[in-house]
Amino acid sequence: MASIRGADLEQMTTLNRRFADEATSVEALQARVNQAISSTAWTGPAAEQFRERWASEFVPALGRLREALSQNATVVEQRRGAIEAATGV
Question: What domain range is 59 assigned to?
């Protein structure tokens, strides 16, 4: 059985936009949580633990997610363009 290669170009355009939009959403989420943390009077061990984890674990993880979404938006768009060029669509 032969494997099928290619993609639905319209769906790839949609995927590219979704990845880019979601990268922006991740950035906005991080900004909202940063704002909430900085504007909330909260002290004690739980507050310190959360702030430490936020800075050391969650912010870097969100950054990696945002970067992966952005990079893959670019990859999807490049692949879509290559398929379009190859098929003459």
Answer: 10-36+43-87
